[in-house]
């Protein structure tokens, strides 16, 4: 069994297909999917979806794109619902300097505030970092005492060198469709991630893996991510399935089968 540790079935592209997608998860080898919020409304939607379907768990938080809209209402909602049985983590939070959809000082402040929140509620954090690895690392290091519940870097896309720095913080890394795009440097990163720190994800509807690029991504395409990792590491895909599954359970300790 495998788990898609990061998807957005509440995105408008997938919302009309939720039921159909969830109904075929098992036959595609997926035990469950983690639905990730990006703002207050999508976090509420994630919680609601997790209450509707056994196969769906929720991760709630405000994405750096939406940092400018983070307020006390969001904070209170996250804090309250962090206690829910199927809410596994605070995310996706972090920094995105590629799009800069929120001012950088606001992104940093909101990122830090949600690290504090995750610590208060005792949950791991799921991080979205794009073109901002150095600043993210600085913020994490400055808040080291609040990171005792685990850190997942979703869609990890930095260097092997940066990986060494994040390893010092005992981070986990989730790889998705991007590793199937042609780029040898990505193979180096796959090899460099410690085997007991590797997770898989789709980030659907985004990051559609080869050979479906150009189409909408769906959680069961996570199988193509497993295949790619197995190919690069030259092992049977069952080895990757087993390792990533165990890593997911270890990091998200509230998850129960
Ligand atoms: Zn993301
Ligand atoms: Zn995402």
Task: Please supply descriptive tags for the structure shown above.
alpha/beta; binds zinc ion; 257 residues; TIM Barrel
Write a brief structural summary.
This protein is an alpha/beta fold and 257 residues long.
Description:
This protein is α/β, with parallel strands linked by helices. The chain has a single domain, classed as Metal-dependent hydrolases (TIM Barrel, Alpha-Beta Barrel), CATH 3.20.20.140. It contains nine helices and eight strands. The chain has an eight-stranded parallel beta sheet with strand order 1-2-3-4-5-6-7-8. Strand 3, helix 3 and strand 4 form a beta-alpha-beta unit. Helix 8 crosses helix 9. The mean pLDDT is 96. It binds zinc ion (ZN) (2 copies). One zinc ion (ZN) binds next to loops.
Order of helices and strands: EHEHEHEHEHEHEHEHH
Shape: globular
Largest sheet: 8 strands, parallel
**Attached small molecules:** zinc ion
Uncertain stretches of 5 or more adjacent residues: none
N-to-C CA distance: 11 Å
List the topology elements.
Layout: E1 2-7, H1 18-23, E2 30-36, H2 40-52, E3 56-60, H3 72-81, E4 87-96, H4 104-121, E5 125-130, H5 133-142, E6 151-154, H6 160-167, E7 172-175, H7 184-192, E8 198-200, H8 222-233, H9 237-251
Parallel strand pairs: 1-2, 2-3, 3-4, 4-5, 5-6, 6-7, 7-8
Bound molecules: zinc ion (2 copies).
Residues 92, 128, 154-155 line the site of one zinc ion (ZN).
């Amino acid at each position: 069994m495998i788990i898609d540790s990061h998807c957005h079935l509440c995105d408008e592209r997938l919302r009309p297909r939720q039921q159909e997608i969830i109904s075929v998860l098992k036959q595609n080898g997926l035990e469950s999917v983690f639905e990730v919020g990006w703002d207050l409304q999508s976090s509420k939607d994630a919680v609601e979806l997790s209450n509707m379907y056994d196969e769906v768990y929720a991760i709630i938080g405000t994405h750096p794109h939406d940092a400018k809209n983070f307020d006390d209402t969001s904070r209170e909602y996250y804090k309250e619902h962090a206690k829910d049985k199927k809410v596994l983590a605070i995310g996706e939070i972090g920094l995105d300097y590629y799009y800069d959809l929120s001012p950088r000082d606001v992104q940093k402040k909101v990122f830090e505030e949600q690290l504090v929140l995750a610590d208060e509620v005792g949950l791991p954090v799921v991080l979205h970092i794009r073109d901002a690895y150095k600043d993210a690392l600085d913020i994490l290091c400055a808040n080291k005492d609040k990171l005792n519940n685990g850190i997942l870097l979703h869609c990890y896309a930095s260097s092997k060198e940066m990986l060494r720095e994040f390893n010092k913080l005992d981070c986990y890394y989730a790889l998705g469709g991007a590793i199937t795009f042609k780029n040898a440097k990505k193979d180096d990163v796959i090899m460099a991630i410690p085997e007991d720190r590797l997770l898989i994800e789709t980030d659907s509807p985004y990051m559609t893996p080869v050979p479906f690029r150009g189409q909408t991504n769906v959680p069961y395409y996570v199988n193509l991510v497993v295949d790619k990792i197995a190919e690069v590491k030259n092992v049977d895909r069952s080895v990757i399935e087993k390792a990533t599954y165990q890593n997911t359970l270890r990091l998200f300790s509230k998850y129960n089968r």
